[in-house]
Amino acid sequence: MAAKTPTVKLSSGYDMPIVGFGIWKVPNDVCADQVYNAIKLGYRHIDGAWDYTNSAEAGQGVRRAIEEGIVKREDMFITSKLWNNYHAREHAHEMAKLENEAWGLGYLDLFLIHFPISLEFIPFDKIRFPCFWSDKEQTKVTPLSKVPISETWGALEELVQTKQNPNGFIKSIGISNFHTQLIYDLLSYAKIHPSVLQVEHHPYLTQPDLIAMAQENNIAVTGYSTFGPQSFIELGNATAKEVKPLFETDVVKSIAAKHGKTPGQVLLRWCTQRNIIVIPKSNSIERLKQNLESSSFDLAEEDIKQISALNINLRFNNPATLATPIRIFT
């Protein structure tokens, strides 16, 4: 069993493990086993989403670990996310309820608005997981719908379990892929403070002002795609194929050699040492262990500066590349 993973205290009062297992792109047929094996290794934080389509399988993996006495439900931290087609209040409530049922664990620890993008509603029985498209062939980008973030945030607040709302089934709520201006606006009316901001974060896209703004306002930051282009090569992302892998940069390789760690561990520690939560995935048990143990050493301040200097403001996850661009990152 790995040493207990450090945690970040959220504004909601709950503790969130700083290293989690992300299930984006984990195939449905192996997801239950991968989640179960990750828990056996010591992972206590699983990062999922409606759009990943594998929540039911992930929930099976968690329940198996609970049934075998490896963990209790309260030891686990489960994150999911509201997809873009369900921003209207009634649709947000319905999707959240279906997602909670899919995991089958009684409640969700954290529920995020996945993107600050409201797309037209598509009935669940028409296309269960539409992603950005309105047809099953994924050729037509779904049009935007006129639902303000204030309505969506209010809908999520109504699902949070509090003394006044004991039937709520979400512990903490947050946001993903938001930028500073929208976060300032959200803070002006939020009755429940956002606990977490999840954004793309790696040495090619450091976004220091966004990170600072969130942390200054008591919003914990989760960085996704810590390894940069690695996650996107298999998706056929042209930019990811063209740029040098972060694992192969001289800076990361030399710092890894100096500390006797892998480049992956160095990239993860570059985040967690700055109190940024990470959610890497791996199909390899050995790399899963390495990822989980990445908080067991410290980088020098100079190491962190050198890695941060790799920044070229290169974003891989960008809906502006859709056939009908949605330009949220400007």
Task: Report what the structure shows.
This protein has 330 residues and is of the alpha/beta class. The protein is 35% helix and 13% strand. It contains twelve helices and ten strands. The strands form two sheets. The protein has an eight-stranded parallel sheet. Strands 1-2 form a two-stranded antiparallel sheet. Strand 4, helix 2 and strand 5 form a beta-alpha-beta unit. Helix 1 packs parallel to helix 2.
Please identify the structural class as seen in this structure.
alpha/beta
* Assembly context of the chains: single chain
Kindly provide the radius of gyration, computed on alpha-carbon positions and rounded to a whole number of angstroms: 19 Å
Beginning-to-end CA distance, first to last residue: 44 Å
Helix content: 25-40%
Mean pLDDT: 97
Order of helices and strands: EEEHEHEHEHEHEHEHHHHEHH
The count of β-strands is: 10
Shape: globular
Low-confidence regions: none
Q: Provide the β-strand percentage band.
A: 5-15%
Largest sheet: 8 strands, parallel
Task: Order the strands across the largest sheet as they lie in space.
Answer: 3-4-5-6-7-8-9-10
- The helix count comes to 12
